[in-house]
UniProtKB/TrEMBL annotation:
Protein name, UniProt field: Fructose-1,6-bisphosphatase class 1
Sites where the protein binds substrate: D120, G121, S122, S123, N213, Y244, K274
InterPro entries linked to this entry: FBPase_C_dom (IPR044015), FBPase_class-1 (IPR000146), FBPase_N (IPR033391), FBPtase (IPR028343), Fructose_bisphosphatase_AS (IPR020548)
UniProtKB keywords: Carbohydrate metabolism, Cytoplasm, Hydrolase, Magnesium, Metal-binding
Organism for this UniProt entry: Polaribacter filamentus
PANTHER family: FRUCTOSE-1,6-BISPHOSPHATASE-RELATED, SEDOHEPTULOSE-1,7-BISPHOSPHATASE, CHLOROPLASTIC
Amino acid sequence: MTTQKQTLGEFIIENQSSFRYSSGELSRLINSIRLAAKVVNHEVNKAGLVDILGTAGDTNIQGEDQQKLDVYANEKFIQTLTKRNIVCGIASEEEDSFITINSQDENNQNKYVVLIDPLDGSSNIDVNVSVGTIFSIYRRITPVGTPVQLEDFLQKGSEQVAAGYVVYGTSTMLVYTTGYGVNGFTLNPAIGSFYLSHPNMKFPEDGNIYSVNEGNYLDFPLGIKKYIKYCQEEAGERPYTSRYIGSLVSDFHRNMIKGGIYMYPKGSRNPNGKLRLLYECNPMAFIAEQANGKSSDGYTRTMDVEPTELHQRVSFVCGSKNMVEKVEEFMREFGE
Ligand code: AHM
Ligand code: MG
């Protein structure tokens, strides 16, 4: 007899008491993200039909304007989190500034802020390549019942309460952590439920996949160039292989399962790196560390970087522990 897998809804309820701050609020928040992810998934899966159903700027059959998918995903996540009144503020890659929720309502006792990249890698949609959603959750530091402030969002990654991603791939998965390991849930589209498919996910300590946009090679710091050459030449009988999807969530997800490293270093084209600290790097770093992996900017632990602005960029090296440490060795030795 096969045992029925646990659904994400059941998992959230059963594990609620182990959350660091157990009030049910965080459970409701993750439940809302689950719901929005299903709605976005439905839309992402229809992307290939866009020429048939209408393109951005057109009006669809119900008279609604067709939207670009990243705009759509942004709206869905914000709507879901706002309407259910479970957070006090949201910051998104798609919004210049953070959003304050119910700032006039003294009864808004919500403690959490969410930072989100609603559809990361969206340039891949046109060509049927996986994209993802990334989210990061903090407790606010200003008093509850008052409007959120920038400082509630500019917290170090080490203060995260939960983080996760959704990968809209060959199957859709939601992977998240609340600081007690990492669990992955796969969507059964026929039923519309996420099932626990990857309990207690761990990065292999070592790996043989390196993921980096080698088109930027000439622009990379010397330490990174040397590391890439080490992977290609000096590490024996070609034990390394290169895989780069160009969708952070998918590259990270594969590396976590198979063992590997993802790198987006700074260079003259991206003087501070390309990826965003608060809603791309920190959540992935939290998941990586919870899964025995590691994440840094080549020198400093990602989650120890002091945030100074909402859309701050940072160099990002993340994956199997031994591989990240090797890159850090090269950075210390060869630097920029
Ligand atoms: P985006 O937020 O504009 O989608 O950019 C983030 C994406 C990551 O998913 C991906 O790893 C990286 O940018 C790819 O960048 P590049 O095309 O420069 O290699
Ligand atoms: Mg992004």
